[in-house]
Amino acid sequence: MSQLRTWGALLVLAMTVTSCSSFDPGERKALDEEGLARVLPSMGFKVPPGFEFGQAYTYSEFVGEPARSARFDAPPEYGDGRAVSAANPSFPPMQSTTCDAVPPGSWTSLGFTCAPEILMIRHPPSGGLGSVTVLLTSDDRGSHLFIETVGH
């Protein structure tokens, strides 16, 4: 009987530890550069050389692949989108867009502010679960690459 209690206590302890290490749906969790590097291939997007990691988040709304968002920064000369398009030939070319046309997302949590010219890629173009949206802006501090995937 005492062995049964020991196994039961160990089971409860294991369940408690496991549930404490996960995060609740709806909670945004910071993602470091190493963690993001592990999931970038599943996003199907390659950050071009010259861009440095800024910050990233993961966000779960339901069981499955979580949504992710990230920002990378580069010198101002990277703001024309050529390096991004060259690194991602399976994506459509970057297109100019307006602030009103930027799809909803957690952009401001990454430091996004609307700029006079925004370049955007959305793959697939229709959006939806599993889609990737990429924004590129430039200001006097440099170029800023924002990536967001929709969970599925």
Outline the structure in words:
The structure is a single chain. By secondary structure, this protein is α+β, with helices and mostly antiparallel strands. 24% of the residues lie in helices and 29% in strands. It is built from 3 helices and 7 strands. The model is unreliable at 8-23 (pLDDT under 50). The chain has a 7-stranded antiparallel beta sheet, covered by helices on one side.
Distance between the termini: 45 Å
In total, the number of strands is: 7
What share of residues is helical? 10-25%
User: Any idea what the shape is?
Assistant: globular
Topology:
Layout: H1 2-21, E1 28-30, H2 33-43, E2 52-59, E3 67-74, H3 82-87, E4 95-97, E5 118-123, E6 132-139, E7 142-149
Short description:
The protein has 152 residues and is an alpha+beta fold. It is 24% helix and 29% strand.
Keywords:
alpha+beta; 3 helices; 7 strands; single chain; 152 residues; globular; 29% strand
